[in-house]
Write a structure and sequence with these properties.
68% helix; mainly alpha; 5 helices; signal; DUF2637 domain-containing protein
Length: 139
């Protein structure tokens, strides 16, 4: 299914490029953009929470945030009017690129990197650091 979609989307993109109008009027434009940014914020919050818990699912969440942020950045850049709005979109893209890079670093890290290399996962910040372990072979 994924390979077939990849193949089918190529000619479909050509059809869209040839037939869609250059401009259009859109209902609920602001709601769409606010919703997208709130989705990114929620994803960042979820990723941060999972990282603090040393949960390996943070990798999946971070990958999703990177993808959604890339889509947001793309649409910011291609829909901005020339001039000041376009300059602002480019500046925002720099920040969004940093977020994408941070998320990809988390998403592509091995489990050990996700669990131990981050300062917020150090024993000093762990809620479990004050507890006594009763597991066999524990120090």
């Amino acid at each position: 299914m994924i390979a077939a979609s990849a193949i089918a989307l190529l000619p479909w993109s050509g059809v869209l490029a040839a037939t869609l109008p250059a401009t259009t009027e859109v209902r609920n434009w602001s709601m769409a953009w606010v919703g997208l940014d709130l989705l990114i914020a929620a994803g960042c919050g979820l990723t941060w929470t999972l990282l603090r818990r040393a949960d390996p699912r943070a990798r999946v969440s971070a990958a999703a945030v990177a993808g959604i942020t890339a889509v947001d950045m793309w649409f910011d850049l291609v829909t901005a009017n020339p001039g000041a709005a376009q300059a602002i979109a480019v500046l925002c893209a720099l920040g969004e690129s940093a977020l994408i890079a941070a998320c990809l670093r988390i998403a592509l890290a091995d489990d050990a990197g996700t669990r131990t290399e981050q300062p917020w996962n150090s024993p000093r910040h762990s809620a479990q650091s004050d507890s006594v372990s009763c597991a066999p072979n524990s120090p």
